[in-house]
Design brief:
The protein has helices at residues 45-59, 72-83, 89-103, 124-135, 143-151, 156-161, 230-237, 241-254, 261-264, 301-318, 342-356; strands at 8-20, 32-35, 38-43, 67-69, 107-110, 113-116, 120-122, 177-179, 182-184, 191-197, 211-229, 272-278, 325-330, 339-340. It has 358 residues and is α+β, with helices and mostly antiparallel strands. Strand 2 (32-35) and strand 3 (38-43) form a beta hairpin.
Amino acid sequence: MCNQKRIYVDLHVLQTVPPSCVNRDDTGSPKTAIYGGVTRARVSSQAWKRAVRLKFRELLSQENVGQRTKAVVDLVAREVMVVCPECSEKQAQDSARKVLEAAGVKVKEDKDKLKTGALFFISPNQIHALAEIAAKQEKALNKAECQKALKDNPSVDIALFGRMVADDPSLNFDAAAQVAHAISTHAVENEFDYFTAVDDCAPEDNAGAGHLGTVEFNSSTLYRYATVNVGELQNMLGEKAPEAVRAFADAFIRSMPTGKQNTFANWTRPDAVYVTVRRDQPVNMAGAFEKPVRAGAQGYVANSVQALADYAAETYRDFVAAPVLSLAAGKGLDALAVPGSVDALLDGLEAWLKEETK
């Protein structure tokens, strides 16, 4: 199926996080970026996509959530033993290896375990299809059949985030979704927390600490953006595309990366959500914050929301067409869309997409 309709769903989220270290660099410092000439807090797209994928486990059925792992042989082998109960564990492992190699995926021994050379993204339905072929225990496997098993029935997260297979690019999936690095709408400076830990079993006359350390953190109002190419998603998922877009929007809005959560417990909710459906092209509104927002009497949130609303209005007036559908949750975006709850926003988005993609 080839869907020629151009439908892009853009998600714009403003969210404030208190002192936190949501996403660290190689030195343990919160990630940052220079934008508009000043330092901004940053959370990488990879970190938030991982959070979205974990949220999918709550929102979607098991068959719609894939696994990214080097232990693909084990996954297929376990399914072989379900399909073929009389197979021994060794037979299942050997058959799983053969069917993956026949499909073009390289497998090697790593500490007595069979692993792929790189992380491999695979769906439950693809695992089952490979296991069905492997269970036949045929000496000569058909490469086309094995590759078809890995190309058909992608899970929702594979369709959204794509799959790259260096061993055989024909097994790749182009991502239907793009996620931007989240950045603060204002300038930030990282701070340090000096902490000590006491040895509970130390003698009473010992006044020293059992451990000394520091942790770096910042706090910020973040602008988060993602977009979904609905036509591309429909080509891969068919009639399940509207449900997949809803799940992605839900997970993107409500998820939070888990970096240093035990230390900071930064489980906040968004301050404002603006979702648009466009027919021309995706539009990232980060330009609203190229000039750093200054804190007002109500902090950064109110001024950030106003900057987003003003920039969107200017964008629609001077550069691109207005969206064909606009939805909002939270305060301050009334000029762009009638605000409601996040659940109402998701219901409206899914209903519109179901009607439009029939």
